[in-house]
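[09:14] KT: can someone run the structure on this one? pasting the chain below
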Amino acid sequence: MDYLFYGFLAAIFYSISVWFYVYDEEFRQAKMMYIGVGFFAFIMMLYQLKIADGEKSKKNLKEIIFSGHLAVITGIIFSTLICYFLCFEYKPSAFKISSTYPGQSPASLFAVFIPAILVNFLAGSFISLSVAYAMKMTYLFKKKTISL
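[09:31] RB: done, structure tokens below
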């Protein structure tokens, strides 16, 4: 059940940066969302390092990758829900199609949810795969050199 904790933690860190973007009336802080993707990836890396610890983990590579992706998907679900509530709280007129306020169109919501779903999935999957392979290969290399 650690994947729920780390997924929720990654969603919170990502959503803090999205809050800065949504709080701005004209959506000028787009870089904050991508800083949040970095936070999301960092939390996923911490989770992967925890579960892929070579000396303590008896899991095979498929289990480590699966549990990493499970944490990523959990984090994406939580972050999307939190982003939805943030947008609904700070920009409720953006959910209306006939919004005439600048910066509050449905296209501005597109800029919130694409990083929350797609970019977080790509970053989390990359971290999940790269850390799992790196940790297991390092463990196997140490195991072979010790047994000689």
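[09:33] KT: thanks! Residues 10 and 40 are 5 Å apart (CA to CA).
[09:34] RB: yep, looked fine to me
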